[in-house]
Design brief:
About 40% of the residues lie in helices and about 25% in strands. The protein is α+β, with helices and mostly antiparallel strands. The chain has a six-stranded antiparallel β-sheet with strand order 1-7-8-4-3-5. The protein has a two-stranded antiparallel sheet with strand order 2-6.
Length: about 150
């Protein structure tokens, strides 16, 4: 499994297509999942990674429970199968962009381990500043010195 690293500034084209950073195109060749994130961002997962993650999260739940139905909706209704086009681009649907707060063509592509995250640039800059300030507390909460 590939781990996605790095932060890249990108601009969407007039059709709201994002050019995926070249170093990740081979990993994301074929089907990928565009997913509405828990934070104000979109996630791009290799298909196998997303399917494995969703199955693992849902497997221990009672198949008749309300909780499983709700989590199934969370995982599947908020994900869309897409493919990179010949130029290594993905199209961002308006409702996905709206959910992520992407209101301009300026986006940040951030590596997040198992996926790439797509953020509105201003939102990312604010979030990244906050995350950096909280880093000592986050590492301390894991038992590591800051």
């Amino acid at each position: 499994m590939t781990t996605f690293h790095g932060t890249f500034d990108h601009t969407l084209d007039a059709k709201n297509r994002l050019t995926v950073p070249a170093k990740f195109r081979s990993t994301l060749a074929g089907t990928v999942f565009l997913v509405k994130g828990a934070e104000p961002c979109l996630s791009v997962y290799p298909a196998e990674t997303y399917e494995t993650m969703a199955r693992a999260a849902l497997a221990p739940m009672n198949p008749l429970s309300t909780q499983k139905r709700e989590f199934s909706r969370l995982f599947y209704a908020n994900a869309m199968e897409i493919e990179l086009d010949g130029a290594g681009r993905i199209m961002l649907p308006p409702r996905f962009m709206e959910r992520a707060g992407i209101t301009t063509r300026e986006v940040v592509v951030a590596g997040a381990g198992a996926c790439l995250e797509l953020w509105d640039r201003a939102t990312w800059e604010s979030y990244d500043t906050d995350l950096t300030q909280r880093a000592p507390d986050l590492t301390a909460s894991l038992g590591h010195p800051a």
